[in-house]
Amino acid sequence: MKKTYREILKWGDKHEEQIDEGTLRVLKKKFEMSDADINNKMLTGDTEVKLDKKVSLDEKFINEFISISGEENVKYDDYSRAEHSFGKFYTDLMNLRKEQIKTPPDLVIFPRNDDEIEKIISICKDNNIALTPFAGHSSVTRGVETPKGGVSLDLTKHINKVIEVNEKNTTVRVQTGMYGPAFEDYLNNFGDSYSCGHFPQSFEYSTVGGWVAARSAGQASTGYGKIDDMILAMKIITPSGIIQTKDYPSTAQAWDLNKIFIGSEGTLGVITEVTMKIRKFRPQNTSYASFIFKNFEFAVEAMRTIMQSGIGKPHLFRISDPEETDISFKTMNFDNTLADKFIKTLGYKTGERCLMFVAIEGDKDYAKFVKAKVKIIAKKFGGFFLGGKPTKKWLEQRYSSAYLREPLMDIGIMTDTIETAVTWDNLTQLRNEVIKYLKKRDKTVVMIHISHVYENGANLYITFLSPMAKENEIDDYVNYHKGLVDTIHKNKGSLSHHHGIGRSLAPWMMDEMGKENMALLQAVKNHLDPKGIMNPDGTLGLK
Ligand SMILES: Cc1cc2nc3c(=O)[nH]c(=O)nc-3n(C[C@H](O)[C@H](O)[C@H](O)COP(=O)(O)OP(=O)(O)OC[C@H]3O[C@@H](n4cnc5c(N)ncnc54)[C@H](O)[C@@H]3O)c2cc1C
Questions:
Q1: How far is C-alpha 101 from the geometric centre of its chain's CA atoms?
Q2: CA separation for the pair 527, 534 (Å, rounded)
Q3: Best of 84, 96, 138, 212 to mutate for ligand 1, by most ligand atoms within 8 A of CB?
Q4: What's the first-to-final CA gap in the chain, in angstroms?
Q5: Close Cβ partners of 195 (under 8 Å, ≥ 6 residues apart)
Q6: Does 202 contact ligand 1 (Cβ within 6 A)?
Q7: Over the stretch 367-408, which tens digit does the pLDDT of each residue have?
Q8: DSSP per residue over 285-335, as a string?
Q9: What residues form DSSP beta bridges with 241?
Q10: pTM recorded for the entire structure
Q11: CA–CA separation, 405 and 528 (whole Å)
């Protein structure tokens, strides 16, 4: 393998994605790009990694770590340190493209078991060495950076096995460094066949522990809940000792200790094991539906009514706003086909219409029943039934857009996403204000969808694309992003619905949470991590 910056910044390790013809056509039109612009690749990061910052950790400690985990599991060459310096936030990728790695970890350790993790944490605590848990590094909030150097503790190499599946309880006990596909494959092939039910878009390159630590949501979260709702028990190795909870289906034993660690983003300790709910894997039972609505407001009202009617819940439930709907129609070459012309004659106009995707899993009769009810409610709000195919098609390519980020950045397009949770009564205003803010920038595409839905509100997932400010790419992005977060915050959206806070959203935490709430978080941190070694320097806004 070539040891370049590009290998590190690339999404996954599969392939270099090419931008398809349909998308290229849309890009050229929206951003007024010529063929020369498209062929002119910039900041591709194709050079070999070389770090300026030398390892500053005393050799004595390096040898101690080697004696614990073995020479093959302790790395301090430039490439390993660079590989563990960043996640996938826009500035991470941009810094790698510009070959700027200011604060790599001194050392990367791949522990083989919990005993080793305990020993490593103890040495770090006694000697004030920073320690940052590292998993799929798909963090989009600057969660795995190491501003104080120290140890990056990579759990993916060894801490990655299913320990036990309990078919009677429908639970699985699993080590946290296991990647999504290996986990799901194991469950699909076990006994009566199960599924984890958790499919973030980053599924292929994120881990069970990353999901828990960053409080993630999968694409079927409307039916199965976020990771918060799936965890029964956990084991966490903290600098102050081991915390372990039990897998009761529910308890009233004081407050829920699991919740302290779900979303802790490596600031309290290393989560090494979790017991999770699983469900039967019966894809043949799934019912699919898709609809087109005349506008976003009708689609949202249909969605809200479905969620509040007590008819059962879709698992996958999405609405794309008019700009996202238009771009999918254009890139899929649906625009101006006979079907498109027909839909237009019914009043579903370009620039106003919105797609809705629905999939209901579980028992066959249940799935059919919910679909029938969804159809009745959608119709009341003018939803035109398009059959199940568009949803199935969407599901087939559900992970693919993640691969487009590299080729888009190669041709100078800033592309990023941000997401927020909002109650129904504030959703429209929040969306309008976000669009108003983002569109102040010339030539900007803003696509918004709802993809995680509750009785009381939903998330908004915002994707924006705009030409980069050449030579000033990072500062320009940081300013634009800051204005966007300010807009979300002012208009009653949460700082995050499922990406977590990391360091990128930490500056808003005090204002969002308030002094007393932050003091409580800090007190928990001070108890579990008294020396402040765990993922230090600003993660979650903690000291
Ligand atoms: C293209 C793309 C699509 C995405 N789509 C989604 C999505 O649909 N839904 C969603 O929720 N998120 C999504 N994300 C964000 C990201 O994938 C999630 O936050 C994911 O849960 C991170 O998992 P990871 O294994 O990559 O963790 P990492 O990125 O390695 O770590 C994330 C944070 O958790 C800490 N951590 C990791 N493992 C442990 C552990 N065992 N113990 C303690 N702390 C730990 C790290 O220190 C860090 O602070 C997406 C990201 C990308 C790049």
A1: 23
A2: 12
A3: 138
A4: 39
A5: 184, 187, 188, 278, 279, 280, 281
A6: yes
A7: 999 999 999 999 999 999 999 999 999 999 999 889 999 999
A8: G-EEEEEEESSHHHHHHHHHHHHHTTS---SEEEEE-HHHHHHHHHHTT-T
A9: 238
A10: 0.97
A11: 38
